[in-house]
Write a structure and sequence with these properties.
- By secondary structure, this protein is mostly beta strands.
- The protein has two domains: about 70 residues, no CATH class; about 110 residues, Pectate Lyase C-like (3 Solenoid), CATH 2.160.20.80.
- About 5% of the residues lie in helices and about 30% in strands.
- The strands form two sheets. The chain has a nine-stranded parallel β-sheet with strand order 1-2-3-5-7-8-9-10-11, with no helix packed on it.
- The N and C termini lie far apart (about 60 Å).
- The N terminus is likely disordered.
Amino acid sequence: MPTVLDRLGDACSPGTLTPEARHANLHVIGADLAHADAAHVEITGALLERVDLAGAQLPGVVVRDVVVERGDFSNVTIYRGHVTRADLRDARMTGAQIIDGVLSDVVFDRVKLDLAAFRASRLRRVVFRACNLVKADFANADIGGADFVDCDLAGAQFSQAKAAGARFSSCRLEGIGGVASLRGASISSDEVFVLADVFARALGIEIVDGSAP
């Protein structure tokens, strides 16, 4: 990650987000921007601490060199956005909708992403570490550049995803959908038995005890 903190200017806040606004070198603490509606906003070189963007509509947002500490981004909607070199820690993003976007060099660390959607998005060098991704939706997404480490992906959807190159390590995968789309992904050995059951269910195969008459 870039040393964003080394080049931040004086702490300041954008107050409100307006369409096509440009914000750079920010240190924002505790700003209430819930339900903001602003297209094509650009944020570069920022530290956002405990910022509330719940329910915000941010189509076409561009984010570069940003660190997010905690904060509420639940139900935020980002359509065709670009996020590059970002580090999100301990944030809440339940139900976030990141649709047809591009994420590059992004780390989600202990982020709550249950029910979040990354549909049709492209993930390049993206790490999900210790994240809650229960029932997350990666349908039609290109996740080939993503690493999932110690994440809860129970019930997540991968239908029509491109997963060649993706890596899953020590993740919970019970009940995932679109399992056939994980062709080409790397999965740690401790998940093999769980996936065997998932594959069998997807193919309509009943697994029975071999000792049964």
